[in-house]
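anyone seen this seq b4? input:
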Amino acid sequence: MGVLDELRAQRRAAGTASGSAADGQQPALLLIPDISGFTRFIEESGNPQAPFLVADLLEILIEANTLDLEVNEIQGDAVLFYRLGPPPTAEELVRQCRRIYLDFQNYLRLVERDTGSALAASLHELALTLKIVVHYGRVSVARIREHTKLMGRDVIVVHRLLKNNVAGSEYILLSDGYLRTQPPAELARVFAWTRLLPGSTYYEYLGETPYHYAHLSPLRLLLNAPGVDDDVPTGQGCVLKVRRALRVPAPYALRVLSNFRLRPRWMEGATAVHYDVTKAGRLGTSYKVDVFSGQIDFQTVQCLEDEDGRLTYVEKISHFRLFPNALLFCCVEAVDFDSCLLTLELRYGHVASSHRLIRFGQLRRLYRFLGRSLAQFAQLVER
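predicted toks r here
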């Protein structure tokens, strides 16, 4: 057998897993969140930070995964997710789409808070938002070197559905392929917060393609609001907060907070920190902290001062699997010249566990982690 024959055999094997049909295709959910306004924002903002913001937003979309989806491709302003096997229920799908949209918009709002930033001004003028296309069909899975490639008519369908006749730029679009797998009464129930409307678009070679869509705009009422995550057992929204008075000036506390090198000296369980010393101190810098038996990725996002002189230092947390899309807010308020009040506030998208008891236990554990870290920080700075 030659090299080409071996490659063909491997690809055939990859596409004929158990449960697949004789044609080598398997049922799969295909989901594409697409950033609306991406091209205009990159071209017209003229800001060198714009591509990095879009990269952060794509990472936010990937971190918001609650359905165990696999990333197949990142295509400029969109991510193609897939999951082989039976389709998720309508309730599970809506929860996933809501999570993606809310995490995306909450991160944009955070960036827009920096009123002195040219990037924030560009976001106000050239709004970014999100549309999500969902399709269920059959795909062939091929392994090409280290890459997984999805092929078949339904892959073409989900990409074509990104160009449609829906008015507006933030919505969920459900193909007939997915809608046929769900009871109509259940679809009506889970979309009660908006309206599920019929539509169709003609595509060359595919013909008239029907679908239903629902606008995401009603979810804007939930942005940064408590109780966004229905899975949180505490009933206090997706925020954990601890606070402590410090006997040091506010600017000094902020300098210690933003010093990567000192992080293992006050963060509970931290043993080492890894970062590029040539980039330390810059906004947008990423660094890693070894915590207990794992590692957490941080990225500096903002450092703001409001009209009252309150200082806020913000970091984004990645690869924190139980708390995806988390942001750490460090707020420093001056009490007098020699003392200040420090608040550590962790905002997270959701708790990534289906078990209520595990979610509750992890929230309690994280709250203690923040409290102990703050106590150790006080000891460090007051020495």
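The radius of gyration is 23 Å. The chain has two domains: 3-222, 239-382. kinda curious what u guys think
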